[in-house]
TrEMBL record:
Keywords: Iron, Metal-binding, Oxidoreductase
Organism name: Prauserella endophytica
Domain named 2Fe-2S ferredoxin-type: residues: 2-78
PROSITE patterns, A to Z: 2FE2S_FER_1 (PS00197), 2FE2S_FER_2 (PS51085)
Organism taxonomic ancestry: Bacteria, Bacillati, Actinomycetota, Actinomycetes, Pseudonocardiales
Protein name (record): 2Fe-2S iron-sulfur cluster binding domain-containing protein
Alphabetized InterPro entries for the sequence: 2Fe-2S-bd, 2Fe-2S-bd_dom_sf, 2Fe-2S_ferredoxin-like_sf, 2Fe-2S_ferredoxin-type, 2Fe2S_fd_BS, Aldehyde_Oxdr_Iron-Sulfur, Beta-grasp_dom_sf
The keyword RNA-binding belongs to this UniProt entry's keyword annotation: no
Length: 160
């Protein structure tokens, strides 16, 4: 066991855990923050996306011990215009992917604002986010219900 002090949603959370415990399991199983979802548990679906110092990460691929001292934000601690926009645009059906979609979109908007190029095209748009660019930048977040039109609409509203 190792002692880890995570900082989650503004609160220090000391934990005694095995070193191989993922950040996702630390959040869900040890801290009871079940808003962050486990889909694939191997970095393919984005359901587990949280923010670390404002940067979006797949928490299933992160070891909790690596994130000591970082500011972790989960959907439970988020207060962002995207949340209302997802409701207005019907950006979900079952909701399983939604917390990951929203956390990812918060990180994506910050990346775009900072001029970070898209991982796929390697180009920064530098301007208004088109639906196509949002789809590409959000391509790591899958929605099995196919609520993509609403998801893109919500993000586009907030991006404007
Ligand atoms: Fe982490 Fe699917 S649960 S990417
Ligand atoms: Fe069901 Fe996206 S709303 S998986």
């Amino acid at each position: 066991m190792v002692e880890v002090r995570l900082r989650v949603n503004g609160t220090d959370e000391p934990l005694d855990i095995q070193p191989q415990v993922s950040l996702l399991d630390a959040l869900r199983e040890y801290l009871g923050l079940t808003g962050t979802k486990k889909g694939c548990d191997q970095g393919a679906c984005g359901a587990c996306t949280v923010l670390a110092d404002g940067e979006r990460i797949n928490s299933c691929l992160a070891l909790a011990v690596q994130y000591e001292g970082r500011e972790i934000t989960t959907i439970e601690g988020l207060d962002h215009p995207l949340q209302g926009a997802f409701v207005r645009h019907d950006g979900f059906q079952c909701g399983y992917c939604t917390s990951g979609q929203i956390c990812s979109a918060v990180g994506m908007l910050a990346e775009h604002k900072d001029g970070m190029p898209s991982a796929v095209t390697k180009q920064a748009s530098g301007g208004e986010l088109s639906a196509a660019e949002i789809r590409e930048r959000m391509s790591g977040n899958l929605c099995r219900c196919g609520a993509y039109n609403g998801i893109v609409g919500a993000i586009q509203e907030v991006a404007r």
